[in-house]
Every structure is written in structure tokens, then in C-alpha cells.
Amino acid sequence: MTTFETTGARALVRARRRAGRVLLYAFLTALLLVFALPLLWALSSSFKDRSEIFAHPPELLPDPGTLDNYRGLLDGNPFWSWLLISTVVAVISTLASVVLCALAGFAFAKYRFRGKNLLFDIMFSSLAVPFAVIVVPLFIMVAKAHLTTPYFALVVPWVAPAFGIFMMRQFTEQSVPDALLDAARVDGCTEFGLFRRIVLPLLRPALGALGVWSFLNSYNSLLWPLIVVSEPGDYTLPLGIQALFGATGRQYDLVLAGAVLAAVPSLIVFFVLRKQLLEGLTAGAVKS
């Protein structure tokens, strides 16, 4: 009797696990569809005429497909200029953010100085303040300092984000042992050499994750460029696409074509840094 009860209990546990796994995969599949279907619809609609985009019932595949949307976008608008400005600004912002956040996170994690906890608490609490709240004060500060040059002004908000500093500090505490730093100091390594030769290689996964996050934040920004950029020749990609959408007739066909092309740099950055991104996101998830 005991053997039958044990076998039945094990079968029940396996059945529950199987049911839980089926529900998990069903939920993940539904989540995938929620995120993927709008992207697939945008890609498909970028090859349709404007009248076909709103056809009822909607058709997933264009019949026939056309490249007129892409020709109209590239021939009638400075799309490549928008793309170049957005990419350059995003790359500069990402490099500055990665370096400064790594330095600040290392300092908060491994150095003792007066007011460290207070400074970190103030910095960390700024995460609760929406960017829209500080847009006007930030613009006034930039304008009074006469630093409204588009390339400089577009980089300012993304140079040292609080989230990046917090992320680097947490990862440094977990991945950089104090004994290793002390041994390097005994061998005569300078503090900056310590950071460059020992800390940075150990922070590579977190740096990749922060780089992807910083690039996407800067590349996709609309609100800040909308405030600091006034000349059409200095438009970033989100501003340019917004101008197309706000034009007479709501040029959805050109907007969708622009959105598809705009996704290319983001996808390239993701695929180049995907290994570091996944390692950075999963770091500390499992106790050693």
C-alpha cells in the first residue's frame, strides 16, 4: 500500500510540474506575441501603400509589396542625416556614460570618504524623479552656461545616469574582491592603473549591459531633443519621424518605413553586445 501511495504521489508531482510548465510556456508565448506582432505588422506595413495599411480586414502580408515608402522617405527627407546625428550622439553618450558610471560605481563600492553614504542616497533617490520633471531646470542650466550646441546639449542628460552608477556599484561589490585590489597596491599599481587593468576587465559583463541600456536611452530620446533642437538640419531620428507623423496627411507609410530603418542600429548594438548583456543581467542571480 505504501509503495502504491508513493508512486501515486510522485505521479501527481510530475503532473503538477508538467501543468506548470505548460502554463509557463503558454504565458511566454502570449508575451512573445504581444511584443512581436506590432513589430511584424510595422515591417509588413512598411511595404504597403497608405490605403492598404488601414484596409479592413487587415492583411499581414503586403500584396503586392512595394518599395515606394522607402524611396519617398529617402528621396524626400534627410533621413540619413537624422540617422547619423542620432547614432553619433548615442555612441558619444554611451562611451561617456560607461566610463563615468564605472568610475563612480567603483568609488562608491571600494573607497571610504566623508559623506559617501549621503551622496549615494541622494543620487539613488533621484531615480524616483521622472525625467520630465527636471527637463526645464536642466534646459535653463544648459542655456545659461551657453552650452546649447546641439551635439553637446543632446549628450548632457545621458552622461552619468543614476541607474548606471547604482548598477556599477552593485556589480563592483560582487565581482571585485578587496584582496585582489590590496595585492595590486602592494605590487605598486596606481589607483587609476588599478581601475584600468583589474576592475574594468572584471566589469565587462556589466559594462556591456550598461552600454546597451545607455545607447537605447539616448538613441530613442524624443523629449529632450524636442526642447534643445530648433533647426531642422540638426534633427535626431525620433524628431525627424515625429515631423513626418505631424505633417499634413499623417504620413503613416513613411513613418513605418522610417521606424523599420531606425531599428537597425539598435539591433546591431544588441547583437554585438548580447553576450555581455545577458551576463550582466544574470550576474548575482545565483549564489556562489
Report on this structure.
The chain has 288 residues and is mainly α. The chain has 2 domains: 2-45; 77-282, MetI-like fold (Orthogonal Bundle), CATH 1.10.3720.10. Helix content is 75%, strand content 0%. It is built from 15 helices and no strands. α4 packs across α13 and α8 (162-175) runs antiparallel to α11 (204-219). The longest helix has 44 residues, at 2-45. The protein is flat, with a radius of gyration of 25 Å. The protein starts with a helix and ends in a 6-residue tail after the last helix. The relative contact order is 0.13.
Q: How many DSSP E strands?
A: 0
Count of the separate structural domains:
2
Task: Tell me the number of helical segments per DSSP (H or I, 4 or more residues long).
Answer: 15
Tell me the name of the CATH class of the largest domain: Mainly Alpha
CATH architecture of the largest domain: Orthogonal Bundle
The first-to-last residue Cα distance is: 42 Å
Q: Say which CATH homologous superfamily of the largest domain is assigned.
A: MetI-like
Main location: membrane
Domain ABC transmembrane type-1: 83-273
Transmembrane segments: 22-43, 79-106, 118-143, 149-168, 254-273
Organism: Streptomyces rochei (Streptomyces parvullus)
